[in-house]
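Repro case for the chain-ordering regression, as requested:
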Amino acid sequence: GQQLNQSPQSMFIQEGEDVSMNCTSSSIFNTWLWYKQDPGEGPVLLIALYKAGELTSNGRLTAQFGITRKDSFLNISASIPSDVGIYFCAGPALSSNTGKLIFGQGTTLQVKP
Amino acid sequence: GAVVSQHPSRVICKSGTSVKIECRSLDFQATTMFWYRQFPKQSLMLMATSNEGSKATYEQGVEKDKFLINHASLTLSTLTVTSAHPEDSSFYICSASNWRGHTGELFFGEGSRLTVL
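-- result from build under test --
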């Protein structure tokens, strides 16, 4: 079945540093979604990408939908302590037209002040 | 973004009792809602797809008699954990979809932490 491979699994960085994480798949996705989950909370949508090659920013966050439609990356610039959390990439299952998503394994980000 | 409200956020119950978790889509009508379960430091595991006015579709390995799902309206879905046991303790998260065809977004509730004693 479809799978999303997300890397790195975890990151421990210094405040102010830039962060990059990515998701890859052996199958094509038509939409890429990036979520952030704070401890004890539900995931919050950060960026949605709908078109191959699309580059979208949301404040210090930038995400791109790969040209091959098999990958996407998320960058965070000038990290701050509140960026701490788990970041998930997600994409719709091919078999679904209801929004059933496949999730990556998540990237746990820790920021040292 | 859209708001999805989940209640209760935390619940502690005795083994053998049933627990109901509500998921409400506050600002859009969600024909489809999803229920996930998440173990510590793991990704979200889809349990079932809840369709308004019809039976839920359960993922492989999820007991439908154990996890009862009702999607009575376009804004409310409920998950009832029946005869809960300690192994059912987990973080349960719902989401509401505004998906149309092959595009859309998925919005999550705040999650419900279930602890079964």
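Ordering looks correct now. The CA atoms of residues 32 and 101 of chain B lie 13 Å apart.
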